[in-house]
């Protein structure tokens, strides 16, 4: 069974902390994505990566950075967490081929206090 | 740019009722279209997909037909169950790497 695994289901962090969200996929997918999900706003793309060490900004990259040192792993970094970054974070991956679907992890519910 | 518009929720239905969730899209060319389902506290799971015009995707009693003439991909199920209660997302992928999602429609099915 294909798998996208996020390192934590729930996280509580303090304002100003540096936060790392990890995502690993076992499908040899080229593309990996980080989304943020908030009520009424749907999914918003933060960053995506189409290859190792490559990254592209999405719609809301401010306050975030990413790292992709290995093909299977894509990390989202909150440089200095703020309360408005409290949200559900979803990682996804896909093949680079155009008509293929994305596979999602189970999500990380982050609360910044 | 590419985008997806889906009907606002929430939707509440009685068990065994007929379900339609409308989805329309804007895209150049020939995108692939998807429906995802999200159960409470979980990530999104692919429900069905269609990759070209007039294709019908189906899974677990749900169906959607890719209509290029109306740029639509409406989700239907003939008889919903309580276990279908979830949030449903319509999405498209065009020739690039990005996916575009609707804002989601919450469905509650009551016994």
Short description:
The complex is a heterodimer of chains A (113) and B (111). By secondary structure, chain A is mainly β. Chain A contains no helices and eleven strands.
Describe the structure.
The complex is a heterodimer of chains A (113) and B (111). With 113 residues, chain A is mainly beta. Chain A is built from no helices and 11 strands. In chain A, strands 2, 4, 5, 6, 9, 10 and 11 form a 7-stranded mixed beta sheet that branches. In chain A, strands 1-3-8-7 form a 4-stranded antiparallel beta sheet, with no helix packed on it. In chain A, strand 4 (31-38) and strand 5 form a beta hairpin. Chain A is globular. Chain B is 0% helix and 51% strand. Chain B is built from no helices and 12 strands. In chain B, strands 2, 5, 6, 10, 11 and 12 form a 6-stranded mixed beta sheet that branches. In chain B, strands 3-9-8-7 form a 4-stranded antiparallel beta sheet, with no helix packed on it. A two-stranded antiparallel ribbon of chain B has the order 1-4. In chain B, strand 7 (56-59) and strand 8 form a beta hairpin. Chain B is globular, with a radius of gyration of 13 Å. Classes of the chains: A mainly beta (113), B mainly beta (111).
Task: Identify the notable features of this structure and list them briefly.
heterodimer; A: 113 residues; mainly beta; 7-stranded mixed sheet; 53% strand; B: 111 residues; 6-stranded mixed sheet; globular
Q: What order do the helices and strands come in, and which of them pair?
A:
The complex is a heterodimer of chains A (113) and B (111).
Chain A: E1 4-6, E2 10-13, E3 19-25, E4 31-38, E5 42-49, E6 56-57, E7 64-70, E8 73-78, E9 87-94, E10 103-104, E11 108-112
Chain B: E1 3-6, E2 11-14, E3 19-21, E4 23-26, E5 32-38, E6 44-50, E7 56-59, E8 62-65, E9 75-77, E10 86-93, E11 99-101, E12 105-110
Parallel strand pairs in B: 2-12
Antiparallel strand pairs in B: 1-4, 3-9, 5-6, 5-10, 7-8, 8-9, 10-11, 10-12
């Amino acid at each position: 069974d294909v798998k996208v695994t996020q390192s934590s289901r729930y996280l509580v962090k303090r304002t100003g902390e540096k936060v790392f969200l990890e995502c690993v996929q076992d499908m040899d997918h080229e593309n990996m994505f980080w989304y943020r999900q908030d009520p009424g706003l749907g999914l918003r793309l933060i960053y995506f990566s189409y290859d190792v060490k490559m990254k592209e900004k999405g719609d809301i990259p401010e306050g975030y950075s990413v790292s992709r040192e290995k093909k299977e792993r894509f990390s989202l970094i909150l440089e200095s967490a703020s309360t408005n970054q409290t949200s559900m974070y979803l990682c996804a991956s896909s093949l680079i081929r155009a008509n293929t679907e994305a596979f999602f992890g189970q999500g990380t519910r982050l609360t910044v206090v | 740019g590419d985008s997806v518009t889906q009907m606002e929720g929430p939707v509440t239905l009685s068990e065994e009722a007929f379900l339609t969730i409308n989805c329309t899209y804007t895209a150049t060319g020939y995108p692939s279209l998807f429906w995802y389902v999200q159960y409470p506290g979980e990530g999104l799971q692919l429900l069905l997909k269609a990759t070209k015009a007039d294709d019908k995707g189906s899974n677990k009693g749900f169906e959607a037909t890719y209509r290029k003439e109306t740029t639509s991909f409406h989700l239907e199920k003939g008889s919903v169950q309580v276990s279908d209660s979830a949030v449903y997302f319509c999405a498209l992928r065009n020739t690039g790497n990005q996916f575009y999602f609707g804002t989601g429609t919450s469905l509650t099915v009551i016994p």
